[in-house]
Amino acid sequence: MKVYNIAVFTGGLSTEHQISLVSASSIQSVLKSSEYTLHIIGIDDKGQWWYYPDGNFTNGHTDVESIALSKQNRFQTYIVNSDNKAKLVYADGEVLLDVALPILHGFGGEDGRIQGFFDIVGLKYVGCGVMASAIAIDKQITKDVLRGANIPVADGIAISKGSVIPSFDELSLKFDLPLYIKPACQGSSVGVSCVTNQKELDAALNIAFDLDYKVLIEGCVQGREIECAILGNENPKASPLGEVQTNGGFYDFNSKYVDNNASKLIIPANLTNEVKLKIQQYALKAFKAIGGCGLARIDFLLREDGSFVINEINTMPGFTPISMYPKLWQEANLSYTDLVKTLIELA
Predict the structure, then answer these.
(1) Is residue 258 helix, strand or coil?
(2) Angle subtended at Cα 184 by Cα 182 and Cα 315, rounded to the nearest 5 degrees
């Protein structure tokens, strides 16, 4: 039986570096199979690639706030194309790779950059390709593509650095309050603010522009946050639906990864069959509209009247033990381990 060499990429240069480490640790803990040999490549906050031959790539912590890449028993590494095969090269040897599993969120990992590199070195990989990744990471471009496919999205505008920014009073005439200020190309609600006046708007824009050259200003959509997981290539499937409920406020970074009491996941979401089916259909439609493959999580805001908008498409959703994506597939009787194996097969 062939043993497949799987390169697991973790860490990265984005603000979601530590989330990536927790996700990769979770995958490493369950993917113990005679079919696969995992090769962990940690990317540090300076962009350097490190290979951990013994697999011990963290400092031993498991929480998002404390986890970090280990500085022990590692080698600087690079990957080259050797006779149309990807080869991992390091000081003590080399490994021919079969599949990359890029557990990298945000900049450099979820935006098409590393996917383009994989294409160049001839390495198959889990998840969306360059185009779909690049579209989905940019919330403004995502909206444009979805509108073109007649898929509803939240009202808002995009503002670039240096451009004229409307006042809060001007924005309040166009959009429902409160306003939400978001960096265009960040994930995990990093840099997202909810604002109700000019002072808060100014502060929120400063935070968002520190993270991105382009910022979205969106009106409020009163509704429930419903999420759907997508799995597959040519014939993708939609998972059962889940709902995120917060204890006040919105689903920010703290609610997602730090404070276990700030939010809860309701799986399956309590919805009528008609609403469930419609959301699943639109999730698949959105996935196909961006040219997705492998996996994605599609996030909706569902109003009381049954109408909804797509809030975001995540082409490499979190894989931590509490993440929505694997939990939704567990509801469909696909275990965490089998889910990861399926993704490798799809790659």
Answers:
(1) helix
(2) 110
Entry pTM: 0.93
241 shares a domain with 337: yes
Q: Quick check: helix, strand or coil at residue 290? A: coil
Q: Give CA torsion, residues 91, 92, 95, 99, to 10 deg.
A: -60
Residue 206: C-alpha distances to residues 46, 182, 203 (Å): 24, 11, 5
Phi, psi of 201 (to 5 degrees): -60, -45
pLDDT, one tens digit per residue, over 10-35 is 999 998 899 999 999 999 998 877 78
Peptide bond into 326 cis (omega under 30): no
Q: How far apart are CA 250 and CA 246, in angstroms?
A: 7
Same domain flag for 83 and 229: no
Residue 250's domain comprises 134-152+222-346
CA 308 to chain centre: 21
